[in-house]
């Protein structure tokens, strides 16, 4: 081993010591000291993405979102498949009210978290943040559409009033007879705009799209041999801590018998796409 390689190996070892120190400081909520430790580690080995994501997490705890974004972007440059980096970048963009960019990054983090090497402890947290972001995105676009619909409705009503006035001038003496179709036109117009606004109205999620245990909308549905669908994490927790049986049918159930329910998953996605995630997320 040459002197350069020896120096590199020594720097890597020292950087790992600093990372451990940083983790210890973080655990004690000493975020400034943790940042200093991770910064020193980065100076020694700038191409290790975890040093950047660890520092970004410290900045997040201090609400320094500009630095969260900077460190997250650097981590993504080094490792495009970093769940934490995409997740924290998404949160940072949401803080800047860049909803589309934030949703895109959170969706990427969720997809990676559910990938070949699932990061189970983060998936639920990412999902919740993504749901909130989607709801904010829906609210923003819904407000804009509602204003546009109202303006269009007023324009149509004014046009009808003008037409009714002109018609009444040409057919003087028949106003009573003309009021009936005139009012019917206004009623029909109101119904048209009411239907147009329906997709912007928050709705209750249908029962069949919700887990029988949590009563919350499915994220990762699986189906049992008896035909009952559950949220994967919830039914696995039940099988591990309560017993190996179906909680609804009480029939014996082993984790190996659970099968992804792609039909329900697609139905959930179709519902969310149509309603813009227009339901309240606690």
TrEMBL record:
It catalyses: S-ubiquitinyl-[E2 ubiquitin-conjugating enzyme]-L-cysteine + [acceptor protein]-L-lysine = [E2 ubiquitin-conjugating enzyme]-L-cysteine + N(6)-ubiquitinyl-[acceptor protein]-L-lysine. GO terms for cellular component: cytoplasm. It comes from the Eukaryota. This is E3 ubiquitin-protein ligase CHIP. It is an enzyme of class 2 (transferase). The lineage of its organism: Eukaryota, Viridiplantae, Streptophyta, Embryophyta, Tracheophyta. Residues 204-278 form the U-box domain. TPR repeats lie at residues 15-48. GO terms for molecular function: protein-folding chaperone binding; ubiquitin protein ligase activity. It comes from Manihot esculenta. PROSITE patterns: TPR (PS50005), U_BOX (PS51698). Pfam families: U-box (PF04564). Pathway: Protein modification; protein ubiquitination. One of its GO terms (biological process) is positive regulation of proteolysis. SMART domains: TPR, Ubox. Keywords: Repeat, TPR repeat, Transferase, Ubl conjugation pathway. CDD domains: RING-Ubox_CHIP. Its EC number is 2.3.2.27.
